[in-house]
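Review the following:
>
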Amino acid sequence: MATLYQLFIQLKNLNTTLRNSTLATLIDLENEIIRRKENLDSVGFEIRQYEINLKEETPNSEIVHLFVDKDKSALENYLNSLDRLSYCILNNYFLERDWRSEYRDVIFDIVDKKQEEFGVSSRYRNIKKLYNRW
């Protein structure tokens, strides 16, 4: 009986450790999504600032290409992090019911605003699957 009790305590401790590890992973992933979203927003702000300044000067094609590249890269990084989160939700690493209310609007907004990224050959299949499921 004492052995069963010790086994029960060990399983309980293992469960706690696993939950804490999952939570730490989730927090890291969320922080990465936030960081990448902030970068995407920052590039958008730079582009809008440049457009405001264009009222007084001629556009510099090199700067325009630089902004296009920065925007594309920032968007790709953000979508990759959302795709990773979507994969985790779809494969039950994180409970869907816990994250649907948090990320449903985020997923819907990005798919609706960036439809060109979610065509037939999209690299972001997990986001598309979650979008269709929700």
Q: What stands out?
A: The helical segments are 2-53, 61-90, 96-113, 125-133.
